[in-house]
Amino acid sequence: MINILDFNIFFILLILLTITVLYRYYGLVIHKIQKKVNLKNSGMQFFTTELALIMFNVCFMLLLKINILKRLSFINFHMGLIFLIIGIIFAIMIAFLSYNLMKDGSHGKAYQKMVQKSPFFIFISLLLLVGFAEDLLFIGIIQNVLTTKIGWCAIIVYLFIFVFYHYFNVLIGAETKKEFLGMLPVRLIISLIISLSFHFTKTLIYGIIIHNLFDTLSFIGTYVAINNKKKESC
């Protein structure tokens, strides 16, 4: 087992960035495997990807001797409830934004096709898995480790790594630069709320619930807009 805290901050940052890059390329390998078994652009692809990423995160948390159960406990409930309320308010706002973007035709075409093709598996993935797939890495590993070394400054570093990670979508063609920049404010709001919830409660669970709510309500807004557009075109 590795005690990452024995290293200096620069080596720790190098390790965390390496894990982030491995996480990204691990996801790409999963997508290549899914493509070979005809799971491309389907809800099942999304579902199995999230499960695979969760396993990746759990393995590295165990390797780094991070207490997963402790980081997923409902401690500091009153503070957590405040963040949940804030998260719900923003999630509803994002749902309306997603509805309007889809209605105007300015949402990602690939995501729209996936939603139309298999909405059930996407809904289940967003409701139950997506928060664990991302936040165990970005908050449970990256922010958690950095907090012990640099305190609240870990939030700033985490946000930079988070943006760096999502810019990979542009580099591999999953998003256009315009789509990336358009989604950046929303992603930063979500990630900041999740990050602050961990900073003040010392647990991941509230942030994961908030993350799942954001994505699930956004999906519902998108799905409703697609169906409304279908009805209008009939």
What does this structure look like?
Helix content is 83%, strand content 0%. It is an all-alpha fold and 234 residues long. It has one domain. The longest helix is centred in the C-terminal third of the chain and has 29 residues. The chain is globular, with a radius of gyration of 18 Å. The model has no long low-confidence stretch (mean pLDDT 88).
Question: How is this structure best summarized?
Answer:
The protein is mostly helical. The chain is built from ten helices and no strands.
Element pattern in H and E: HHHHHHHHHH
Mean pLDDT: 88
Q: What overall geometry do the principal axes of the alpha carbons give?
A: globular
Helicity level? over 70%
Major beta-sheet overview: none
How many domains?
1
Query: What would you call the quaternary organization?
Result: single chain
Q: What is the CA–CA distance across the termini?
A: 61 Å
In the predicted model, the low-confidence regions spanning at least 5 consecutive residues are: none
Portion in strands:
under 5%
Q: Report the strand count.
A: 0
Write the layout of secondary structure elements.
Layout: H1 9-36, H2 43-63, H3 68-71, H4 77-104, H5 109-117, H6 119-128, H7 130-150, H8 153-171, H9 177-201, H10 205-233
List keywords for this structure.
234 residues; mainly alpha; 0% strand; globular
